[in-house]
Amino acid sequence: MTEGTVDAVAGGVAMPEHVSYTLRVNGREHRVSEAALTESLLYVLRERLDLKGAKGACEQGECGSCSVLLDGLLECSCTVLAAAAAGREITTVEGLTPEDGSLTDLQDAFVAEGAVQCGFCTPGLIVALSDLLRRNPAASELEVREAISGNLCRCTGYGRILAAVQAVQEARSA
Amino acid sequence: MPVLLPASLPEAFDALAADPAAQLLAGGTDFMVEANAGHRRPGSVVSLTRVKELRGFRLDGQSVVIGAGLTYTEMMEPGFAELVPGLAQAARTVGSPQIRNAGTIGGNLATASPAGDTLPILAALDADVTVASSPRERRTVKLAELITGPKRHTLEPGEIILDVRVPARAGRQEFLKVGTRNAMVIAVASVAVVVDFAGRSVRVALGSVGPTVIRAHEAEHEAARLIDWDSNRLVGSLDGWGDFDDLVRAAARPIDDHRSTAAFRRHAAAICAKRALERIVDGRGSEAA
Predict the structure, then answer these.
(1) Of the candidates A140, A7, A129, which has an alpha carbon nearest to the alpha carbon of residue A69?
(2) Rounded Cα gap, residues A129 and A132, in angstroms
(3) pLDDT digits (tens, 9 = 90+) for A43-79
(4) Residues paired with A81 in a beta bridge
(5) To pair with B61 at 20 to 30 A between CA atoms, which of A58, B143, B210, B271?
(6) Do B3 and A149 touch (CB under 8 A)?
(7) Of B5, B14, B45, the CB nearest to A4
(8) Which residue among A4, A17, A74 sits closest to B98, beta carbon to beta carbon?
């Protein structure tokens, strides 16, 4: 059972509830050493790998602000056991943007349409909507609403977000 | 080895044989909520996400064998929805796309919540659940044997839920659920109704209105009495549902809690059951209720 197995703590006093493993995030391998067994992927991304894009709020999969892609599937990183994500391809909002630090067309549209107010929910929405537009470029408004039904935004009332999606759809199909 | 990620069933059995007390982990959507709150601190975890034998579903004669690792998103896909439409309906009401991509039918069973969204339709379809502790030691249990109370199940240490078996294309099915919004909500009350026109039977199962899913047997008999099985329509007038909703109300055993009151749950279950039956039998849709 070597492949996909998380290493036991090497050397020293073995701490049975601590684990070391490697995560593949945005195409790069990251070693995680002696993490607590039950740490969530969200915690490891933010506190150990210094990737602050995914936001922590509800810690129970309700708000979507920690959304990431796991092997291309949208999930809440707060309800993913980090050690069990070893071997999976993890994509965070940081991994969606071009290398030169510019923004994606969806991020630009969020800015242009006023879809960002306090900004806390924005990374999760960008990940969820990037995923939707990749799978379903011509998504209807109802499909957009269902796709972000797990992403809470308490500022915008969602109107500006829907407008940003529509602007991207129009620009991409032009 | 505190966290194991077996890729096959034999590997998973080996891991559990070596450490029967290990926490089994499926999609994580229930477990991690408790872990994040500090309520769960297992000494070791066996993650089942990569066990290939638990993925997907297959047809076996007239049955659909649903792998325990089938996610809610996968249940909504047309190839599966065509075989078990009520389960696809139920899956679509679960959480959000994020939750549906992670959560599995096996996890829903093992969590054994009274509000588990797949449970009413599985009860109405009289599902068989296969559990095993080794490749040779398998047993088949009914839902009511597997889930005995709120978050209580009869899985032995070292046992894994392998699959769930339900009849394919079994009559017409409806799942209805009441909560505070359409998405991201735990059921306040839910109902699954299956009308088997070939077998001339009606099955009604209620969720979130008792310690486990409740089959409303007397209401089922009343509904079967009220259907004209030759025309597949309701006997008599359109309002002639007899005592059906009262019998559903009587079958419910709800409690007051932070999500709702017992009285509202009882009411919602009865209305949903009647509406589901109307949709199936008369095709009148929701406007009739």
Answers:
(1) A129
(2) 5
(3) 999 999 999 999 999 999 999 999 999 999 999 999 9
(4) A40
(5) B143
(6) no
(7) B5
(8) A74
